[in-house]
Amino acid sequence: MASPRIRKLLSLLSVLWCYYFKLPDDNNKSTLNVLLLPRNVDIVEVFKTRRTRNGDREIYIEKIPNCRLTQDQEYTLSTDLTDEHHINPKKAEFVDYDSYTNYMPTFQLCLKTVVEEVNLRLKEHGGPENERVWDRLVSLPVTPSDGATAGTKVNFLLVETLEELGRRDLKRFQWCLIKGVEGFSSISKGQLEDADRLDTVDRMVESYCGEGAVEITLEILRMMGQNNLADELKEKFPNNV
């Protein structure tokens, strides 16, 4: 029979941290929602579910997780903030993939003043304070920058559009980006090698900015005969930037 230490090592799971920030209101109150999800979760489904539920009221903040947690272990989130704040709940259990159906926050950091960055610390509940399993500085958007908000909306919109393409059509779409479309620079094959839908959208936005990424997506979709999907994207675009 395996020792407790071995069983614990076998139950370690790679973790995907998702941050959704609700910007400060008129009273400077804001909320940072922290989701601890198994790495094999469908991140596109997370985006779609959160967006359906909350619309544009929250902003997604991307951070590299670099963390492994123990299944069914309870954890505590803390911060070094001196500003007035509170974290709910006091402790939370990291559960397996099947337990995630609605992508609700694992922790909520409620702020009562405007904070530009926060250092988040995670440790096993009841464990020594200095034995943290994760420690990361997270920058928070202070004001709803039109450019940043629009960019976030465009990314979500494009991810949702590419989600409608099957694997073969996605490869054709990426092939068009590599070969080049009239009026647009091409994206190198290396940048799109093994790229999923999220990676593809990131490469397009980096290369063409938000509006340009939408324009080339429309062009390629029509080249592929995906006219209905292109029409849907064009109809949504003016209302989402």
Broad CATH class of the largest domain: Mainly Beta
Rg calculated over all Cα atoms:
20 Å
Average pLDDT number = 80
Structural class by SSE content: alpha+beta
Organism: Hucho hucho (huchen)
InterPro entries: DAPIN, DEATH-like_dom_sf, FIIND_dom
Keywords: Cytoplasm, Signal
Domain Pyrin: 158-239
Provide a descriptive summary of the structure in words.
The structure is a single chain. The chain has 241 residues and is of the alpha+beta class. Helix content is 38%, strand content 24%. The chain contains seven helices and ten strands. α3 (146-163) crosses α6, α4 (167-179) crosses α6 and α6 crosses α7 (227-236). The model is unreliable at 1-11 and 144-149 (pLDDT under 50).
Ordered list of secondary-structure elements with their pairings:
Elements: H1 4-10, E1 12-22, E2 30-38, H2 43-54, E3 59-61, E4 68-70, E5 74-79, E6 85-88, E7 92-93, E8 107-111, E9 117-124, E10 132-139, H3 146-163, H4 167-179, H5 189-192, H6 197-223, H7 227-236
Antiparallel strand pairs: 1-2, 1-3, 1-4, 2-8, 5-7, 5-9, 6-8, 9-10
Helix pairs in contact: 3-6, 4-6, 6-7
Tags for this model:
six-stranded antiparallel sheet, disordered N terminus, alpha+beta, elongated, 10 strands, Immunoglobulin-like
Task: Compose a concise summary of this entry.
Residues 1-24 form the signal peptide. InterPro entries: DAPIN, DEATH-like_dom_sf, FIIND_dom. This protein is an alpha+beta fold and 241 residues long.
